[in-house]
Known about the structure:
Chain A has 6 helices and 12 strands. Chain A is an alpha+beta fold. In chain A, a hairpin with a 5-residue loop joins β8 (140-146) and β9.
Amino acid sequence: MSKRVRPLLLAAGNAWMACALVACSTTVPRSQSIATADPVASNDVRTIRPLDGARGSLVAVVFVSHECPIANAMVPELRALAAYAAQHAVTFHLVHPSMWVTADEVTRHAQEFTLSPDVSVLVDPAHELVKRTGATVTPEAALFRRDGDGGGDLIYRGRVNDLYVAIGRRRSNVASHDLRNAMDAAISGRPIATPFPSAVGCFIEERTRSTEGLP
Amino acid sequence: MTRDLVRRARGALLVLLCSPTIALAHTNLHFPNDSTLDEAKSREVFIARCVACHGADGFAPLRFNTTEAIVRHRQLMRALLEDGTMPPSDDTSSSDLQSSVVLASDSAREHNHTQEMCSVVSDSDRSLLLRALASRDVTERTFAGIAEQIAQDRALHFSNQPRGATRITTTAAYTVPASGGMHLRSFSVEVPTDAPRRVRGVRLSPIEHAERSPLRYLALAPDPERAWRVLDEHGTGADAMGDIGRTPSGALGAVSRTAPVFLLPKGYAFDLPRGDLVLEATVEPIGREASTRPSVEFIAASDSDTRTVRALAARVVPLVVGANERVSRVVHVDVATHRELVGVVVKGGVFLRGFSVEIIAADGCRTEVARSRDFRMSLARPLIFDTPLQLSQGSRIEVTFDLDNTSANPLQPFVPPRELRGGLPPDAEDAAIVLLVAQ
């Protein structure tokens, strides 16, 4: 199930926010990537490469949406996960997988939910990371082990935790911290017990599935 | 001849509703050049089943309140309707329920009612929506002018009074923490002197940025003696159920994000005494601290709404379920004199998996009138019967609550499960139904 990816990222120059396009191939020139990031109306977009890093190191991404109540409900857990990842040298990004979201909306959301300045927030308007991970909802997490050559293996994809067991069915407490458990296992070199648990959340609208009305 | 045709048609309907072959949820349907599509009905179903959550002030992501927006998201809507993901609920209970309703009307003519469950969409409605979303052209044509129709639908509930004239708002805001579980917060609010004496319903005041509101459900009870104020002296609410003595919360109806308007059938009304109201709010953390000030607007009754509706509560008392037990708890309400059942308001927490309401006639004949196998309080909506059910003298209402305190309950908060006792947080469990009846 693991997939090798060689990502190219765009990141905003804002000190706290990185607006990013994750591309899957180094053949995509930077200027072209910036052009496809047009829905992010920012003058300060820059490219980052989340899978660039030492071989064997880890990078976690969690797809979120500023208007998804389920993703928003998990923000306290995501903040804690970001801090935990930082302590263990795991790169951690939140990613808006949306062709519609604007930089202003991403910025307001990060401020409103106190994600800035501690948590890196990216945008994937072309859904390249979505396609690579196979994520279908927000919130949904993916964990990669870098290969040292700008790519990596997908070793976990699925729910952040079990706060929601279905839409409209929310637990009063979290019993299973799935992403954290996956990170723990990966950090210590153990196999991940359940590497691809299904996630509950708001559906990511596929760019290829709905081309009608695209901006 | 006509009667025979009607009988045959009814039989056909029964077969259609009962047949498993109508489970459209997992099929791929294609309706090119669909000239038989009932566009008006499609819009009506869409507004009733989708716009409550995805409207301009809805809490769910994606706005479906304009023709352009519906066209834009057409493919996603189709996919989620086809696989049964949306609307979020257990659609099998809807199908079964409608079957039982048809059976009931076939065997007992006094029960010729229709009703719809929380958030569910029937198979026929699902099929209708899929046809309306079959192609861009059909979708554009079907949903042309949908924004205006949504506005008209909302205005319809308020056509008998000026907007905002009877708005009732809590005096202070309550701040919901960033994380934790769903819980109750009840507020005492004074009824304005200019409020109508008789009301046909209530509407949740529009919430700005509803997707960021922690408010899920609001049940109302009259408190003419102002008894509840002792618990809410500062107006910021108290962590308690909003029942007033023997008057259950919900006695004046309830509204939720999925059902922001509660309206009795024409001809029926509540008395609204002066004094206080208790607003029992069910709130849910949204990921950051968020304040809420529940606010409602009463819908005045007209002169023809002469039948007075009162509340009867059926509650599991004492609510005790042993660890690792899944049990059915049955509560009966005896009908001493002829009444009509207008609607029901169900309340429960994480242990309430489902419920059913049956009417047992004096001759022992049972009719199931409401059921949910997948109760979700945060998506719940009160049930109002289009045609109130006749409760003859000597009949009995039987309410069965399905309570699951096992580790198999996906919402089980304790590992291992502990004995459940109803009450205040942290367990905050309740299993209650408010029966709205008229004499």
